[in-house]
Structures are given as structure tokens and as C-alpha cells.
Amino acid sequence: MNPHQLPTPSDTPSTRRRFLKFTASAGISASSLGLTLGFHLPAQAQHMQGDDSNSQENSQAINAWLSISPTNHVTCQVAQAEMGQGTSTGLPMMLAEELECQWSDVRMAFASVNKNAGAKYVEVNFATGGSKGIRNGQLIMRKAGATAREMLKAAAAQLWQVQITELVAKNGRISHLASNRSTTYGALASAAAKLPVPHDVKLKPPSAWKIMGQSMPRFDIPAKTNGSAQFGIDARLPQMLYAAIAHCPVFGGAPQSVDTAALLLRRGVKKVVMGPTFVAVIADNWWRAQQALLSQKISWDFKGLDQLDDAAILKVLREDLSKTKPLRQIGHFETVWAQAPVQIGTQLLEAEYFTPYLGHFTLEPQNCTALVELAPNGSPQQAKITLWVPTQNAKASQTMAAKTLGIPEENVVVNRPYLGGGFGRRGNYQDFVNQAVLVAKEMPGVPVKLLWRREEDVQHDFYRPVALYRQRAVIDAQGQLQAWQAVFASPSIAAILQPSSLENGQDFQAGDGFYDSPYDVPNYETRHAMTQLNVPIGYWRSVYYSQNPFARESFLDEIFLAMGKDPLQGRLGLLPKDSRDAKVLQAVTQAAGWGKPLPPGRFQGLAMQDAFGSYAAAVVELSVSPQKAVTVHKVYLAIDSGHVNNPDSAKAQIQSNVVFALGTVFLNAITIRDGRVQQSNLPDYPLLHLRQTPEIIPILVPIGGDVWGGMGEPPYAALPAALGNAIAAATGVRLRKMPFVNEGFTLA
């Protein structure tokens, strides 16, 4: 399962039997450090910074650990990567809730991917993505805390010779009220470590939560605000050298030659490395390496791949619209469409939408520091690699490094600093690790930091796929939507990364937003074609939910305009009355005052989309000048994610999605000419300015039931269409292509 797919019941360990399996293989050890309880945490990944060499020896491959020190400090080892989303705080909150300790006593450490590899726990997933950190980790983290709590109580019961039912765990202490005895977790930890792991533990109901559901201070914020936080780009090691890189500008090309002798004459240059698709220069500082690389013209072999451009891409997409396969069919769209022209009063609608390639543009360019230590006897099996790498998937980084040199994975140690942005770029594709190891291999025994310059990062990404949509609809004489068809073509990420996930040669993930549409239409059909293009693609924030809902929700507004219906009432009329979609729509429109008078010149647009286990809806309030300068005044975004563990982090995710969406919808596109990307840096791939940022009103919609959804990506899904719908309301101009700047609309 890829890190961006919605979980199925089998993906989330929710049964007692599975938990017993996890705890049965747990590592329990007693030492001067107190109690250490190890347990599996499937579908989790690594944490922010730390050194695998500090991992405890002789333990099994563990994804998460609970440690209690004699001084009563509780350390939760988190496997999830920290990209600013707050998971490294959210997961310890869950453990602390059930452990019944004081939040001020909680610390956070890092799960060891190196130890995981050594113990051969191949089923453990170290990928961070798909908005799954909290929703997939909550049950195991809570059970881990509850299990440790009961073991501590059992140790106290044994010490005091009382029944465990007479004991109370609270604020990091076990108390026996009848005898007025009390002691700390730290004092009991060593004894508790020798006891059996209980098979059944009772979890607290949400009504009893004291930490979960509260806005607790995050572990990563102090270091990020005082400047002490260490990102991958900050790696500093004794005797470290630096490498700059130049990729073949045409996708699929390779280097032919470079004047190595001239490069080696430059000050500080140590070595020139010719890779399969790149040339790298190693020097005593990065600036010298980079300037040396820029000083020489590299001869490239484009292999005839330098003919691709935007026009050719659009032509292929149009051709593929006639080669689509069905994703979902209800009723008989083609029959209704064919009969519609002879029926008096029937309206036919048809429109084409387009979304471009997009880059990730992480604020921290791709980098990796690698130390390759060769065995004295030359045996590759005894070589060792140590990495310092900002990665969304420490296991993938380890695997890539091992594969590059052909050594066992347990010979690769992965140290994980903070990530200066991920958005999918630092997950499945580990090209920066492969390159760093190839380069460092040329300087054995010396750490080498490979750092891409911004231009290389923009022009050699794995981009969000391009997509072309053709939609048709039939409105009958009574003004009802009778038929709707969405036919679209886009490259398939799954076909590249996980071809086994395709069903009958079709990629249902590429149809997200269309094949799972919640609207009740008597005759509905959606079809998709997997377009093949020579442009690298990969996961991008919200994946296909970042683009398909733009076409769906914008065309739906076109339908309601033709029907003479209000966009809110029209949507509610196509949804089950008590559905989560309907409730989140009602929540956001109530907050935004939908339908009520607005300040002069202001207009609102609405859109919704459920994604990654959550339901989101947005109302955008904006004004447009005669020169098509758009001022976005307010964005109301409601999300129903079920339980909310840390409301402050959830609201921050909503805010970050709004900022991310405004920039990409209005300003950004990756365009291709002569087989290469035209954009290079901020002047032609700009970011949103603070002055362009609207007031953002996050709305967390509470629902009943034990439901956990994602938060890192779902808010984005509703935003592009809401922006376009608001502009259409303000100007009467329907924007069917992104970015909007190409249609003449700019952000004021």
C-alpha cells in the first residue's frame, strides 16, 4: 500500500488479536534506566532528529518505545517523520493519555530504522504520508500507554501485597488510597519490566480524555523558533566535504563528457564524479563546488528525448481522452445524452478543464550527507554507510543506500534531522540518497554533504501529474440533473511505483474525487486513461485530490448555474441528508454567512471534497478589480476528521493548506520545452506573499463515533474549486485552467 492511499480495515491494527501479536513480540527489559516497553506501530515512520547509533542493543525491530526513567521522565519513541505537521507531539500525547502521566514529564525520541532492519521486521512501514500519522498510530499508541500503566500497577500491587483493583494511576504515580501509600512510576519501573505484558487493557473513553483533544505545546516548536533546530542542510561533521550536482537538463538524458582536468585545477576541488544522469563536484566548501560546476560546459546525451513540449503533452492527453476505461458507471449516460436533444426543455452542458504539472518546492532543497566506510579487506558485505538525511521514509533511505553499494541494509545507519518541507517529495523517491552514496563512495572515510541548488531542485523533481478533463451533463425539462460524465486523462503514479495495485489495468487512485463522488445522480459515469509521458511524476500534497475536485466542483457550479440553483442548496439536494458531506457543508456555510449580504464588491465561492478519511468544505470570500487583481479576504475551511487530537496542530494544518493552495492555484505551473522544465527559481515559480494571505477561519466539525481521519492534506482538496467558483460569482468568468494567472487573474 502506498503512503497516500486511504487505509482499509486491514491497514489499521484494530483488533485484539493483532494487538496481542504486537505485544507478544515486544521487547521488555529491566535496567538502571527503568522500564522499557517495546511494541509494534505499523504504518508509522521515523522522527525528526537523532542518531540510530544511540538505539538500544539486543532489542527486536521496534517502531515505537515507551521508556520510564528513575526520575519519572517518560520517553516515547516516535517513528513518524516531523515535517512541521506535529505528529511527533500528537503520538506521545496519546501514549501519555493512557499512561496517566504528567505531560511535563513526557519526552520524545526516535525509532531506529537501523535496528528495525537488523531484526528483519519487514512488515513495518517507515513511510510518512497520506495524512496517516495520527489516524494509523492512535490505537497502538493508546494501548501501549495503557499496557505500561497496568504493568506499573501490577508492580505496585506485588510490592504492597494488595489487589491491583485497589490501585489508582494518576499524574505519574501509583497510589493505594486505603493505606495512604504512593510511589512514582520511576520507582516501580524496574520491577514492572519483569512482569508479563497484560493481554487486555481498557482504554479511556473520549469523555475522560485530559490530554488528547487539548492544544498541547509541541516538542519541535522551541528549537525551530530559537534557531537551534537542525535540518538536513545543517549537517556539520569533522573533515566534511561538500558536493554540488548538475543533472542532465532533459529527462532521461546522460552526461557525455566534462573537462575534469580543468575542474580539478580550481581552488578547493577534490574530485569530479560522473553519475548515470548527473555530474557532481566535491570540494572543501559548497560554494566552491557549485562555482566549479557552473564554470564548465557539460556535454549531455539527450537520447532524442529533447522534443517534448507543452503542446505535445496536450496533444497526447487529448488523444487519450478517446482511450479511457470506466472507473464507475451508474445508469446509462450515453443513452441519456443521445436522447436529450429531442426532448424539449433539456439542457446540455459540456466543458474542458486542465491542471498542470506542479513541483514540490520544499523550502529546504534536496540534500543528503553520507559517510561511506569500506571494509579493510574490500568485502562489500562489511562496508558501512551512515546517512544524515531529511527523509519522509527512513526505511526507503536505508534501502536505497544499501542497494546503491550492494550491502546489507543493517549496515546502513540513518540519522534523521528535521525536514524543511516534504509534501511527498522526500518519500518514495530517494534519488538524493542514491546520489549522495555514489558521490561519497569516491571519498571513503570522509563525510560528504550533497546539496542541490534551487534550480536543480525545481527542474529535477517528481511532479504532480498533468491532467485534462472533459465533462458533460444533461439537465431535464424539470430542471433536474439527469446525467453527468467525467472523462479524463493523466499519468499514473501507481503504474510506476506500485503496478500491482492496478485493477484490470486501471488506476483508481488517479480517479480520486470522481469514482468516489458522493453525489446522487441517476446516470453517472467517470472514465480515465493512464497517459504515458516522459516527465517524472510522484506524490504531491493531496495527490489526485489536489486536482480532480477542481474539475468536479467547478463543473458542478456550472450545472447549478444552468439549473438556476444556489450552489449550497444544489449540493445538499444531491447528498444524503445526514451525511458527513452535508454536515461539513452546513458548518462552513453557516460560519461564512452564506446567502447573507456581503460588503460591497465581495463574493463567495463554495466547494467540498472528502479525502484521506476526512471531509472538508471551503467558502472563499474575495473581490476582483477591473484589472483582474484578486483580493482573497477570507477563507472559511471546515473539516470533519472525527476525533481531533491536538486542535492547535489541526488548525495549523488548515492554515498551511490554504497558503499552499493560494500559491499553487494562482501562480504556479511546471511547463516543458525541448524536453526540460522551464521554471528554475522564485522569479518564475513564486511563493505566496504575506500581504496576499487572507484571514483564515478554521472550523473543526465534531461528530459522534470513534472515527479518525487525516488532516495534513484533506483541507487542500476543496480549495482550488472554491477559489474558481468565487471568481466566477464575482466576474461571470469561469476559470477552467490552472494556474489562474495564465487566464489573466493575479493575486493583489
Please, could you describe this protein's structure?
- The longest helix is centred in the N-terminal third of the chain and has 28 residues, at 133-160.
- A hairpin with a 5-residue loop joins strand 20 and strand 21.
- The strands form seven sheets. Strands 11-12-9-19-16-17-18 form a seven-stranded mixed β-sheet. A five-stranded mixed β-sheet has the order 1-2-3-4-5. A five-stranded mixed β-sheet has the order 14-22-21-20-15, with helices on both faces.
- The protein has 748 residues and is an alpha+beta fold.
- Helices cover 28% and strands 23% of the residues.
- It has three domains: 16-224, Aldehyde Oxidoreductase, domain 4, CATH 3.30.365.10; 232-301 and 366-451, Aldehyde oxidase/xanthine dehydrogenase, molybdopterin binding domain (Aldehyde Oxidoreductase, domain 4), CATH 3.30.365.10; 310-358 and 463-747, Aldehyde oxidase/xanthine dehydrogenase, molybdopterin binding domain (Aldehyde Oxidoreductase, domain 4, 2-Layer Sandwich), CATH 3.30.365.10.
- It is globular.
